[in-house]
Amino acid sequence: MADAPGKRERLVAGAREVFHARGVERTTLADIATAADVPLGNVYYYFRTKDALVEAAVDDLREELREALAALESEPTPEARLKAFVRLLVSEAPLTARQGCPLGTLVSELNKREDETGGAWPDLMRIPIDWAERQFRELGREDADELAVALIASYEGIALLTGTFRDPELMAREGRRLERWIGTLA
């Protein structure tokens, strides 16, 4: 039997969950401790400040993004990888309808911060853009950079609408359209 995650890992996972549901600014360390099932006093053992916990949550999301994109590399062609990426995003439609895009909402909120950590998160958005650009480049597209931005912008836009209208079908329809679009570019 695998060991249960340690307190630090549970705190990071709890932070990501609560940040997504409530936003960073509205979340307290007590909220995170409750979500992680860790006594509040233990939070300070692992993280001296809320900002340190935010950084750990962002690092965890960054690693999850990289792992998810690396897993798509098993697809045989760049077209298949891009379509699998779209399907992966669409699979989160019910959650997105309730709480928005985990990546987009977090980056948007963090970029509004006035402290020294504000504005340090564009690399989170850069990860899927760079990955998509490599796929489009492998398709032989000279406009790979523009296509990658268009793909991520389309997803983030539909994530916003899906959350606004609480309608996962919007994302499913856009996913089907994006798959057809990718097919025309190959």
TrEMBL record:
Q: Which residues bind DNA?
A: 28-47
Listed GO molecular functions? DNA binding
Give a yes or no for keyword Secreted in this entry: no
Every copy of the HTH tetR-type domain together lies at 5-65
Q: Which InterPro entries match?
A: Homeodomain-like_sf, HTH_TetR, Tet_transcr_reg_TetR-rel_C_sf
The UniProt entry, under PROSITE patterns, shows: HTH_TETR_2 (PS50977)
| Protein known as | TetR/AcrR family transcriptional regulator
- The source's domain of life comes to Bacteria
Q: What Gene3D superfamilies does this protein's entry cite?
A: Tetracycline Repressor, domain 2 (1.10.357.10)
Organism, scientific name:
Solirubrobacter phytolaccae
